[in-house]
Specification:
The structure is a single chain. The protein is α/β, with parallel strands linked by helices. The protein folds into two domains: 34-169, Rossmann fold, CATH 3.40.50; 208-279, Glucose-6-phosphate isomerase like protein, domain 1 (Rossmann fold), CATH 3.40.50. The chain has helices spanning 16-21, 23-33, 53-65, 102-114, 125-134, 151-164, 171-187, 198-206, 220-234, 250-253, 258-261, and strands at residues 46-50, 74-77, 90-95, 117-122, 138-140, 210-216, 239-243, 264-268. The strands form two sheets. Strands 2-1-3-4-5 form a five-stranded parallel beta sheet, with helices on both faces. Strands 7-6-8 form a three-stranded parallel beta sheet, with helices on one face. Strand 4 (117-122), helix 5 and strand 5 (138-140) form a beta-alpha-beta unit. Helix 3 (53-65) crosses helix 6.
Amino acid sequence: MVDPFKDIESFDRAGMLNLISRFPEDIKRALELTESIEIEETEIDNIIISGMGGSAISGDIIQAWLRERSIYPIYVNRDYDLPGWAGRKTLAIFLSYSGNTEETISSFNFAIKRGCRCISISSGGRLEEESRKRGIPHIKIPSGYQPRAAIAYLLFPCIRIFEELGIVEAGSEIRECMEVSREVREENGMNVELEKNPAKRIAKEIKDTFPNIYGWKYLVPVARRWRTQINENSKMIARFDEVPECNHNDVVGWTQRNEISSLSSCILLRDRRYETRRI
């Protein structure tokens, strides 16, 4: 079978595949950047993670991951302002790869006015400047990445903040993540032929369709991430939804207009170890 991905460099002009293949090494480097971080203990009632696009997805992952473990409610904020309940007992973490994201800078200023406990992460920009000026802890990450390829540098420093605050102990899970990431990279590498490469087979299957990606619990942000990666990298329309909510509305949409649904593809992200029989 001819492998249509052999000439990937001709359409992956940004080198995105090479960037994301460095994910395990990026995790290690991101953790090294936070080795000296010290977060002063303080009384908090809730946590807000603010960001947009490829920055905000780190908040989604943490929110889903700690859903049943964090004693504090975690809210992911994608807006110019903050919820009305944000205040002096709010830990507000601001993520902007460039440091100049308009919405994130605006919500950062709202947090300052509300007296929130703030921490910021960026590769520079106004977010770093304002944080340094105000004495707010800032974690500086490497520049030169596409924001959507810099997830390791936005996610794992956040996890270290949660560790410093005693919310979670993630050492073993981070090591597992790095190990599994290496295995996934090997299994789906560019030199792995089509028949043995799950990523290539899925890409070939959904080509020229409207992908619909469904996730459950901690896989919902993964479904969102797939959708946005397809949007930005492949310049394709794609959407995501979550189980079980989609069982009450989305599924009905598939029962009519076959001329539209026939052009669509479905990707179901599942984990049989944890999902209930009803899923």
